[in-house]
Amino acid sequence: MLFRSWAQTADAHWPDVARVPDHVGVEHLVVTRHALVRQVLTDPVTYRPDNALDAVTPVPVAALRVLAGHRFRLPPTLANNGGDSHPQIRAVVADALHPTRVAAQRPWLTALVRERLAAVGAALDAGAPVDLHAELAADLPLLVLARLVELPDAPVGAVKEFARAALELFWAPLDADRQAVLAAEVGRFHRVLREFAATGGGLAGSLRAAGHPPDVVVGALFFLLVAGQETTSQFLTLLLHRLAGEPAVRAGLRAGTVAAADVVEEGLRLEPPIVTWRRVATVDTTLGGTAVPAGSSIVLWLARAGRDPAAVAAPDEFRPGQRGSRRHLAFGAGAHRCVGDQLARMEAAVVVGETAPLLDEVTVVRAPWCPDNLTFRMPDAFVVRRG
Ligand code: HEM
């Protein structure tokens, strides 16, 4: 269940807190109810974020050697930092992603999406199938992020490969051969980040100026390059696919009775790209009546919490603006709540608004396929054709 959890979000038969062993025999406490997920996220004393980026398949010595060869280190910086340095690091990142800076990117992104859609339309007119993931979703978030936060001068393809390798290395069930390949990919890019962290401007420069050591600058860039673009890419693809199957919602968008922003919220609730997120219990405690020993891995089932009937009126239906629609926990909650939420929302609203009319004129050739992963959906493609 753990690695394909999105497939069971609507399954009625789940206790509030379930004990689920993983593929290597480690037991996790899977939290399924909105109120309990929120309780854990907002209680940093009982539940720390230290395990947020731990590899779910233990990394074997051979792959560790590969990482060590690249001098790979990932000290607590943002999502996995429950320490005193977290608020300061977060504040510098939040400045770079301030809502006014995000809003300023909207016209540029809208123009780029229109340009892309013109090319997509021409290809469809010529009878060709088009992969909307590749043409629209895959690189747009990275291009916007690069405008907000100075990034290493690496080709888009290299950053995407690194980010997806990191998501697989830390969150997928893997064998040792694959781990060695992924470790090499992640390690190589870590080296690029280390050089950039030492000399780069933008966010890297601000973190250095605030007195953060090189390891912390690398850690922040590492996390941002993964969390700040791959998540939104995945979400755009999942949302466009969902919207392709929701003609009434598209009709509402056309008629102006449904707002793109509400479609985005309902998308985050029903199709979150991050399906689970982890915490670790610091003390013996109880959660929803279940005993939680200190040290337990807590898997917060964000996707399931979004469908909790206690939080939303029609949990399994895509109804933009319905009561409870915005109460999803797709961005987490509490001290570590996503700092990129406004950026992701802006990007998704632009893409939905501009792309919805095209979805009226196409049929789906190939739905997205998602690999086994504890946390990230990672859709691979979404192919449509005219007609
Ligand atoms: C749809 C897209 C996205 C989703 C679903 C998402 C989801 C999340 C989640 C679940 C967390 C953990 C929250 C917690 O522990 O309570 C998180 C943290 C974070 N996200 Fe996002 N995220 C998205 C996009 C972005 C973007 C675009 C950026 C930046 C450009 C970003 C930057 C971050 C950062 C820096 C953190 C760590 C915050 C901290 O620990 O203080 N995310 N995100």
Structure description:
The protein is of the alpha+beta class. The chain has a single domain (2-386), classed as Cytochrome P450 (Cytochrome p450, Orthogonal Bundle), CATH 1.10.630.10. It contains 16 helices and 10 strands. It has helices at residues 34-41, 61-69, 86-96, 99-104, 106-125, 132-137, 140-148, 156-171, 176-199, 202-209, 214-227, 230-244, 247-255, 260-270, 302-305, 341-359; strands spanning 17-21, 27-31, 47-48, 130-131, 276-281, 285-287, 290-292, 297-301, 362-366, 383-386. The chain has a 5-stranded mixed sheet. Strands 4-10-9 form a 3-stranded antiparallel sheet. It has a two-stranded antiparallel sheet with strand order 6-7. Helix 8 crosses helix 9 (176-199), helix 10 runs antiparallel to helix 11 and helix 12 runs parallel beside helix 16 (341-359). The two termini are 37 Å apart. Protoporphyrin IX containing FE (HEM) binds at residues 41, 49, 78-79, 90, 93, 97, 145, 223-224, 227-228, 231-232, 235, 272-274, 277, 330-334, 336-340, 343-344.
